[in-house]
Amino acid sequence: MRRAGIDVGATYVVEGSVRRIGSRRRIVVRLVNAETRTLLWCDRFDGTLAARFAFHDTVANQVASAICQTVRNAEMT
């Protein structure tokens, strides 16, 4: 991840995973400093296939909001 971040000139990289158990999904998202690999933020989201699109929208909105605030705070220090 460090190399990928450096190659594209990114300061921060979002990475994560998706796990499935039956109809349930768990999405784990992490924001890390591309150069130092320091973890800046991490969260997990649980949902079901029945509410797939609503779940995806919720995750995307919460991740975007958290990342925006976390990067803002990191840049101020």
Task: Sum up the structure in keywords.
alpha+beta; 3-stranded antiparallel β-sheet; elongated
In the CATH classification, which architecture applies? Answer: 3-Layer(aba) Sandwich
The backbone outline, from C-alpha atoms, is elongated
Topology order in helix (H) and strand (E) letters: HEEEH
The class by helix and strand makeup works out as: alpha+beta
Q: Would you kindly provide a written description of the structure presented here, covering whatever features stand out?
A:
40% of the residues lie in helices and 39% in strands. With 77 residues, it is α+β, with helices and mostly antiparallel strands. A three-stranded antiparallel sheet has the order 1-2-3, with helices on one face. The protein has helices spanning 2-7, 52-76; strands at residues 12-21, 24-33, 39-48. The mean pLDDT is 90. The protein has one domain (2-76): Rossmann fold.
Question: Can you give me a brief rundown of this structure?
Answer:
The protein is built from two helices and three strands; from the N terminus they run αβββα.
SSE layout and pairings?
Blueprint lengths: L1 H6 L4 E10 L2 E10 L5 E10 L3 H25 L1
Antiparallel strand pairs: 1-2, 2-3
